[in-house]
Amino acid sequence: MTQTRSENAAATATEREVLDGIRVEKIVALADELIRSRGENPGETEDATVFSLSAALAAIGARVELDEVVPGRSNLIAHLGGDGAGTGGILFLGHSDVVPAGSGWTGDPYEPRHVDGRLIGRGAVDMKGGLAAVIVAMSSVNWVCPELPMTLLVTVDEERDAAGARRYVATQPEGRYLGCVAAEPTGMDIITACRGATNFRLEVTGASAHAGNPDDGASAILAAGEVLRAIERDDVLLRETPDPLLGRASWNVGTVAGGHGTSIVADRCELAVDRRTLPGEEPEVILSRLLASASEAVTAAGRPGTDRISLTGAVEMVMPGFKTDAEDPFVLRCQDAVRRAGGSGRTGAWSAACEGGFMSQAHAIPTVVLGPGDVNTQAHQPDEQVEIDELLLAARTYAVLALRCSEQPGG
Description:
Blueprint lengths: L4 H16 L3 H13 L10 H13 L3 E8 L2 E8 L9 E6 L17 E3 L2 E3 L7 H17 L5 E6 L7 H9 L7 E4 L7 E5 L1 E10 L14 H20 L10 E9 L9 E10 L5 H19 L8 E10 L2 E2 L5 H13 L5 E4 L5 H8 L3 E3 L15 E3 H17 L7
Parallel strand pairs: 3-6, 3-7, 7-15, 8-14
Antiparallel strand pairs: 1-2, 2-6, 4-5, 5-16, 8-13, 9-11, 9-12, 10-11
Helix pairs in contact: 1-4, 2-3, 2-4, 4-10, 6-7, 8-10
């Protein structure tokens, strides 16, 4: 049904009231608190960050649920508005952990600084700033329109093994959301497609012998060389079949470890491998094909002791990719929201990975990545920083988008 002029005016007035309620100092104050809460992964837990998030959300009337993944590490799910069941409207997605601070900082990584309009601190970009913007936006929308449904999911362990996201999709019922926004840093561009990431652990087992008589053994390290060459050959093939939007899938060998000393034929060698996947690829299938190809290469090499070489592998982490149609109504809502908030509304694809693919699969909903800061030039670096004006743009965008997603699916 076509809206009347008075209905459009009322909607505009509501939007203005919501946007007027968003204060940048509230965003920065919450982001500061979240940065101070640390949560390095690996090495620490996210409990302090989750406590701060819970308090901030409870203060605005959210129904907060905590689901312990492992001791001291709990996913957070918060609902505002709606029917009380946590369904409908928009799903915001974030994570509570940060990568280790490392060296090279010009100040304490966990004491936030405000310099020349920028917020500096570990997590300012990835992604304490985005979380603060989401919560302030949800607060303002709920104050004006308490009936509108909104949900925020904050997972643990995103920066390493995605244990929180895997726990969520395994235990939570499907929510009837209109769409999901992962508030990861995109410079406020709307990312409609994202490659996935899978980590494999490969183990080559051979037989030890004295280095003076190497033919008495079976070198796992030499056999691992064939595994590396199999990976390299497959990487070349992947270059020939890129996705038009996401580019190609790719391999990276992160670590190789094996052997016991120079005078002993190595009886084992272990490889940690990253595979960036395209939507629809199955990690177990990728692993099976790699092991078959590498085994054939080891046999073909014909080295002494080949019959005593064995190859095994395991999938250690899976973060699925996703692709949302750029003309999907939810994407168009996102574009409208960014533009109304003062941004460009550009769309694009990401070579990085995030947990949006889990939500796309689990809830069968259109998913985008949309947040303040730049993942390539600002995240995971010393003096991590984000423009405070961009935090405000993000909060305004999320608020307008929540208003646009007020109707129930199928309504």
